[in-house]
Give the backbone structure.
Amino acid sequence: MLSAIARRRRPEGRPESLPAPVYGWNTVDPIGDMHPKYALDMENFFPTPADVMLRQGFADHVTSIANGQVESLMAYSSPTGTEALYGAAGTAIYNCTQATATASVAVSGLTNARWSHTNFTNSGGTSYLLAVNGADGLRAFDGSSWSTLSITGTGASASNFNHISQHKRRIWFVKDQTLQAYFLNADAVSGTATAVDLSGFARKGGELVATATWTLDAGEGMDDYWVAVTSEGEIIVYKGTDPSAASTWVMVGRWEVGRPIGNRCFAKFGGDLLYLADDGIWPLAKLLITERSKPGVALTNKIADAIRKAADSYRSNFGWQLVFWPRNTMVLANIPVATGSSQQQYIMNSITKAWCYFTGISANCFEVYGGNMYFGGNGFVSRFWSTFADDGVAITGEAKQAFNYLKGNQQKQITMARPILNTNGAPTTSFGVNVDYDDDDNLGTLSFSPTSYGVWDTATWDNGIWGGGLNVNRNWVTVSGIGFAVAPRLKVQSSGIETHWIATDLLVKDGGVL
């Protein structure tokens, strides 16, 4: 009888509930005074407005590209609806439009695979994918075939152009190892290129790295600015319509900012332009108008320490790229820890501005094509965020929430915890708590009892349970932690299972101050 009573006795302590760390990864706030919705670490978890989800993975798109590392992906899209995707590896450009085992060669005999590209439609309605790589001239795809276009003009050589962009119906190039940009006539994709020499304005020297269009009104219009950035972090801005005439081409200003990382350092972001520098990711509307030292100016304000360390360690590696993916509300910065072999991605939710980082995605380059995200790696192209596994391999994510004193500055014991998860299966899940700013991996395994749904053509119609949506799991797990401040810690490994972390319930036994 006493044993039965003991089994029915409720655990002692008071309950505490914490929301999941939807504010994301934070490397700058004091860990002793961090908001509980932040995370000290968030690997392979993506913060949404409602919860924190284990990231989705990738699936094969092109599995065999003979020349090795795919270092550029280039999407083509015309007003008539024709779309294509090309990947560059080694000395060739491959047609990666369709999912296939082996991609066909579209262009061969090239020097390198590090292309800068843009889509351009002239007033006659012809659409081009234009690309330069600093060695092989100006290459163009017109929807049916690739060709080499001729560039003439004083000092102009397409084989020395390593960056391309467009501004107000003109194609612009950057000439390698100079402070010169070249532009074509309006609507032209070949012919005479004219130089704009920035040598007299770049006070810190260096070379021109990239150019872009900065739009202030969220559309294309008269107030669009032409932006150029040098290797030393000088941004030079012009306004006007015709760069060949001083009366219609006026310098707006020159700013000294952080140095760019690679020439894929600009990304269009709504009505603004994002800039990837060695001190963070900056929206130009704030970078060039607001004092840079003010908090919140950089989008990377909450991970400033992490991105600065990455820039210091890896800035010379190839693979840095900034991409905005509207469909999945992501701003992505590719971080090449080692060229061609080890990469991470720092990811921001473009709605909430919350950050996280992804591992296990071996990407040299990214490209949005048909609304979906693709990346190129060592001999392959994969479609990202398309499945709940990494090409059939389980995804492992771990998040450590900010430390919390749980409404009391006395010592306390955490005896049980209940992470509240939404899943459609039974992922391998571990949970624990860290106390008083330690980082011990003391995780305990959670058990799941997923709902079994009816399978079409197998289950009995009136007996099977139909559905297949997410189920809320509220299973308690025994944890061990004695201290003043507590940080919940969740680790999930799953393949083919969607998992969301909503909140955490804790059972707390209060002690004394000493």
Observations:
- Residues 304-314 form the longest helix (11 residues).
